[in-house]
Amino acid sequence: MKYVSTRGAAPDLNFEEAMLTGLARDGGLYVPESWPQMSTDEIAALAGLSYEEVAFRVMRPFIGDTFTDAEFRDIIARAYASFGHAARVPLSQLDPNLFLMELHHGPTLAFKDVAMQLIGQMFQVALARRGQRVTIVGATSGDTGSAAIEAFRGLDAVDVFILFPDGRVSDVQRRQMTTPSEANVHALAVKGDFDDCQARLKDMFNDFAFRDAVGLAGVNSINWARVLAQVVYYFTAAVSLGAPHRKVSFTVPTGNFGDIFAGYVAKRMGLPIDRLVIATNRNDILHRTLETGRYQTEGVTPSISPSMDIQVSSNFERLLFDLYDREGAAVDQLMSDLKNGGSFALSQGAVDRLREEFDSGRADEDETRATITRVRQTTGQIVCPHTAVGIKVAADRRGDPSVPMVVLATAHAAKFPDAVEAATGLRPALPPRMADLFDRPERVTQVDNDLAALQATIREGRRA
Ligand SMILES: *Cc1c(COP(=O)(O)O)cnc(C)c1O
């Protein structure tokens, strides 16, 4: 399988190269040159298999000869052994035809573990074979950083540095980053906000001398391997509910468009998905794009579902590539309009296709809180604010009532205890396996919002 850039001007890569590179050199994102197909019989044969076996069968066509079958099975087994549920990604039920896909049974209680645990293991095998070491640097508003640290802690070939805004992540999120004791884990509290962290990260990638000296690598959500890992659970959920003999719909709380793009990939591969619904909070750029045909950035407004407080949805570029018949030059033009003027207009053909594939809705803060309250009253379940956004939008966009609707539950309620307590009066408890999180010693380096200071900290902090 070859990977091509969405902007058409970077070299084609194989899976391993695309995974280790992240962003293409022309500024684009890597996508497979075509979508592998799974037949109705192959999908039917997934029924009753373990999550790991489904993961192997769904992802195998994408990885080419990067890993042998035995290596790949081993990678998958190690990735999901850390999950606190035998089904890995179980379903639960909210009403007769509405289901939750619980993506929060990984070590940091958010869905990013599903992909990050897998790519930690894939990096380790690929780097060991190359005799190479890398320095992973990431910026986080909370969930991505803790998932990356959990995935890479203790791995020989990797040092991981996470920049987070000092004082602006929740206590649970901070402790998940500062309590791992392995020498290759480095939590950096930056005196600034999330945008500062992201800007300094970008500066580091643009400093080619530094980039080469430390072997800089990125694992943010534009990494193709992360999207690929997320395709798997659309298959496990749909097959549990009767696919391929029955259609299933999904509603996805969306920020960077990675998770829902994985659903689109599953559909392209042959999974009979009826509707794919984009659910946004008050930062509703994607919902507005479906309504108006114009992708128009506005300022980010903080919300109680902070992991979706995003203004530029990076992975949307991958969809644009398909909407424009895989013409890199057309995508390049849109992205330059966005960079120069803060917006772009979709062609009529692209808007029509977008609306054929997706539906969308938004939930404001009051609606999100009311949904948490209502779900607690009607089912006894306590959901996180991101999941509540999805449930609210799913209720509005239900479509054919005979088709099961699955809402992706992207985080555990205990990760966002303040918002949940405000809505229900109950403070959600951490699962038993991390009940001692607040007793573990913290280890963190405070750094100024300054490129040279951050680079020095990283150079000196790496293991030789
Ligand atoms: C990252 C995240 C999202 C958004 O996912 P995208 O792939 O960026 O669309 C939603 N909910 C939670 C809890 C997250 O951590």
TrEMBL record:
UniProt-listed Pfam families: PALP, THR4_C, Thr_synth_N
Q: Which reaction is the catalytic activity of this chain?
A: O-phospho-L-homoserine + H2O = L-threonine + phosphate
Whether Amino-acid biosynthesis counts among this entry's keywords is yes
Which stretches make up the Threonine synthase N-terminal domain?
Answer: 2-80
Pathway(s) per entry:
Amino-acid biosynthesis; L-threonine biosynthesis; L-threonine from L-aspartate: step 5/5
Q: Which residues carry this modification: N6-(pyridoxal phosphate)lysine?
A: 112
A Gene Ontology BP annotation from the UniProt entry: threonine biosynthetic process
Q: What is its EC number?
A: 4.2.3.1
> Needs which cofactor?
pyridoxal 5'-phosphate
UniProt keyword annotations, A-Z: Amino-acid biosynthesis, Lyase, Pyridoxal phosphate, Threonine biosynthesis
Q: Which InterPro entries match?
A: Ser/Thr_deHydtase_PyrdxlP-BS, Thr_synth_N, Thr_synth_N_sf, Thr_synthase-like, Threonine_Synthase, TrpB-like_PALP, TrpB-like_PALP_sf
One example GO MF annotation: pyridoxal phosphate binding
The leader peptide range reads none
Keyword Cell membrane among record annotations: no
What family does the Swiss-Prot or TrEMBL record give for this protein?
Belongs to the threonine synthase family.
Q: State the name under which the record lists this protein.
A: Threonine synthase
